[in-house]
Structures are given as structure tokens and as C-alpha cells.
Amino acid sequence: MSYSNDLKKELLAKIQQSIELMRQIEQIEKAQFERLKKEHPGFEELSKTDQSKILFSELDPEIIAMIRRSHERRRRSTPRDDMGLRKPDEFFALPKKKQYIQLYKKFNLLQTEINQLLVDCKYYPLMGTSAEEMRLLDKEYTSLYEGGARDRKIPRYYLERHLKTSLAINQQEMKDRLARVPSFAISFHLDSPTVHFYRQILNCYVFGMLEACCVLSRAIVQSMTRNYIKYRGFGRLLIDGKKGNTETKNVQHICSKILNWDEKRLSTYNKVCNLANKILYDKEVAADAQALSCIKLVQDFIKNFPQRI
């Protein structure tokens, strides 16, 4: 909770700063554009890219050469030199826009920090956000960036860097967890949904999502058991929110009293379900050993599961 609030405060503060910087930048751009348009007839005929480079570039030789080539192409393609354009060197005689450059560098640095914060925010809900803060977020999303309100397009570079950094930090732990998972071989074929669940359980454990690993372990044993009960023709007995039906029984009762499962299989089923229930309902945090134990229990449950004939 505390980290989420700190994250939100830092993000909103930087958004506010970036909006103020953009306002100053736009004022300078407007003033410079009007001045050049007045002092240099034909300035408006240049492309937006050339205008921008002339207005606010660092005036390095490559940019000067590029503008000069562009100007020469325009001159050769025009029968009469009546565009009113002066030689590019005259444009570059303008003083450097130090204030603009400083503001823009600061603005770009802020955007980098905002991008990084927005990636972090994907992992945390920004709780307790007021109407004024929502408006500020909306203004950030709509006035500065493409993507539409509340759907900011974060450049892929920041996402890739975040993932590479995260993987680099956790790589050794992931290797260690993967090494601890026992290989698993069975003599029969599993259906696709069960295989999918099993792969998800392994992925959750390897990537350190221990609670998810335990909860999905419960999902796989419950799914297999309920499907088997239906296969054996006792699906009508399952409790599916049916009220007033005195015939319904819980899964454990059906398996022990009707299907005559042995104690070991029932015990495995209950251990997995109980651990997941503690995480879901008692808010317990799973340890690495508990998640690994769940995987081993699931493997044992599948290995000793009755096969369909």
C-alpha cells in the first residue's frame, strides 16, 4: 500500500513538471516561429522537419549539410527562384536557442522517468486517486502523447529494458527454482486443458509467482476430479450452487464414499486445496518450499489418478 502511494505521488509530481515544461517550450516555439516567419520570407515553405531543425537544432555540420541539400533540391526543381528562400547559412546565423535546448533536455529526462514509472505502475493499482489527480493523468495521456485518454503508449524500449533488467536480477533465482522442479513422466496421455494448467503452474513457480502456483495447483486437481466424477456418471451429485437439491454432495464425499478413492489420493487432493484456500481466504503468503511442495503433490496426484477406460 505504502509503495503504491509513493509511486503515485512521484508519477503525478513528474507529470505536473512535464506539463509545465511543455507549456514553456511551446511558448518559445511559437515566438521563434513567428519571428523567423517575419524575418525570413519563404520560411513557411520549408518542411516541418527542416523548420524544426533550423529553429532549435544544435547546429551540427551534418544537419547543416542536410538542410543545404534539401534547399538545393528545392531550388533546382523550381523554374524561377521566386520562393523567397534565403541561403541556408543565413538561417543558421540565428543565435542558438540555449534556453529551449535546456528545457527540452530536462523535458526528455522527465519523460524517461515517467515512462519508467508507468511501467512500474502496471504492477500496482493507483489507489485513492482523487478526481483532480485523475484529470491530471488524463491531461498527461491526451495532451502529450498518442494513444488516447488513459491508454498511453509506452515506447517498447522502456518495456524491453524493464524486462531485461528484471530478468537479469532474477535470473539466478529462476535457474535455481527450475533446477528444483522434478522431471515428470507418466504412462498415459493428459487432455490439453490439464497440460496447459500444468505448464502454467511451472511457469508461475519458476518466475517467482508462488501464490499463483499454489492456487493454480488447486485448479488442476479440482478440474481433473470434477471431470472424472462426471465421466463416472455422478455429475448430478456435484454442488454447483443448486439450492433445495438434497442429493448434492461435496467432492470429498463423492470420491471417498461413492468412488472409493484411497486415503493417499484424497489426502493429496485436500493438501493442495487447503494450501490454496489459506492463500485465497486467509491471505497467507506462500513460501518457496510450499509452492514446490504443491508441484510435487500435483505430480503425484496426476501419476496416481484413475485412468479413463
Could you walk me through the main structural features you see in this protein, from its secondary elements to its overall organization?
The chain is mainly alpha-helical and 309 residues long. Helix content is 68%, strand content 0%. The chain is built from twelve helices and no strands. It has helices spanning 2-39, 48-56, 61-77, 88-91, 98-121, 131-143, 156-180, 192-206, 210-231, 251-258, 263-281, 288-303. α9 packs parallel to α12. The longest helix is centred in the N-terminal third of the chain and has 38 residues, at 2-39. Residues 79-96 and 142-151 have low confidence and may be disordered.
Topology of helices and strands:
Blueprint lengths: L1 H38 L8 H9 L4 H17 L10 H4 L6 H24 L9 H13 L12 H25 L11 H15 L3 H22 L19 H8 L4 H19 L6 H16 L6
Features:
mainly alpha, 309 residues, 0% strand
Tell me, what's the shape? elongated
Compute the average pLDDT.
77
Total of DSSP H or I helical runs spanning 4+ residues: 12
Low-confidence stretches: 79-96, 142-151
Proportion of beta-strand residues:
under 5%
Compute the separation of the termini in Å.
52 Å
Helix fraction bin: 55-70%
User: Helix/strand-derived class?
Assistant: mainly alpha
Give the C-alpha Rg.
32 Å
Main sheet overview: none
Q: Based on DSSP secondary structure assignment, what is the total number of beta strands?
A: 0
| H/E topology pattern | HHHHHHHHHHHH
